[in-house]
Amino acid sequence: DTGVSQDPRHKITKRGQNVTFRCDPISEHNRLYWYRQTLGQGPEFLTYFQNEAQLEKSRLLSDRFSAERPKGSFSTLEIQRTEQGDSAMYLCASSLVWGGPSTDTQYFGPGTRLTVL
Amino acid sequence: GEDVEQSLFLSVREGDSSVINCTYTDSSSTYLYWYKQEPGAGLQLLTYIFSNMDMKQDQRLTVLLNKKDKHLSLRIADTQTGDSAIYFCAEIAPMEYGNKLVFGAGTILRVKS
């Protein structure tokens, strides 16, 4: 399977704990995105990497959230001191863009569902 | 700012056509997308349309774009029970260094056998 993969698929944690999620993009894709989806809503953009550089961050991304893509391949999203409001599906997507006009079509992984008790 | 709206729910009988509608606000959007989400799963790309096109057909899927009214629709011909899912319309919104997708809240499609 050469699609986007995410791990874990489900995470249950207690309020105040730290959690880390991993995303492996499609292998040749240079762009990687994190989105958050709450129940009954569409995904909302959190942050974006081009290769290893984090180029954009949403205002939704509080100081408790940090994301890395150290070698321009996989990415991690860490949430520190989790709150009940962090409960959501965290989706990763990747795309391939090389200069010039492009669709920048984003392909999504299966998501990590986080439940904060 | 960008905003995408969709109707919340559509129910059809198996074999009928389904039409899911979407309106968007950013007239500069170059691409518009349709994604499908099954329960507990991620988003599956169905199709996309470039803003200079009026229509795109891909097997059972037909996308119509009315750029003047900022209206996008997805028609599914011969709807099957396996088409039951949530369908999201999304527009691509440029940021300073890249693009993000702005999604509607999704349309729940229920197919009755």
List the helices and strands and how they pair.
The complex is a heterodimer of chains A (117) and B (113).
Chain A: E1 5-7, E2 10-13, E3 19-24, E4 31-37, E5 44-50, E6 53-57, E7 65-68, E8 75-79, E9 88-95, E10 107-108, E11 112-116
Chain B: E1 4-6, E2 9-13, E3 18-24, E4 31-37, E5 43-50, E6 55-58, E7 61-66, E8 71-76, E9 85-94, E10 99-103, E11 107-112
Parallel strand pairs in B: 2-11
Antiparallel strand pairs in B: 1-3, 3-8, 4-5, 4-9, 6-7, 7-8, 9-10, 9-11
Explain this structure.
The complex is a heterodimer of chains A (117) and B (113). Chain A is mainly beta and 117 residues long. Chain A is 0% helix and 48% strand. Chain A has no helices and eleven strands. In chain A, the strands form two sheets. In chain A, strands 2, 4, 5, 6, 9, 10 and 11 form a seven-stranded mixed beta sheet that branches. A four-stranded antiparallel beta sheet of chain A has the order 1-3-8-7, with no helix packed on it. In chain A, a hairpin with a 6-residue loop joins strand 7 (65-68) and strand 8 (75-79). The radius of gyration of chain A is 14 Å and the shape is globular. In chain A, 33% of the residues are buried. Helices cover 0% and strands 59% of the residues of chain B. Chain B has strands at 4-6, 9-13, 18-24, 31-37, 43-50, 55-58, 61-66, 71-76, 85-94, 99-103, 107-112. In chain B, strands 2, 4, 5, 9, 10 and 11 form a six-stranded mixed beta sheet that branches. A five-stranded antiparallel beta sheet of chain B has the order 1-3-8-7-6, with no helix packed on it. In chain B, a hairpin with a 4-residue loop joins strand 9 and strand 10. Chain B is globular. Chain B starts with a strand and ends with a strand. The A-B interface holds A 4, 6, 31, 33, 35, 40-45, 48, 50, 55-56, 91, 93, 97, 103-111, 113 and B 4, 31, 33, 35, 40-45, 48, 50, 88, 90, 92, 95-106.
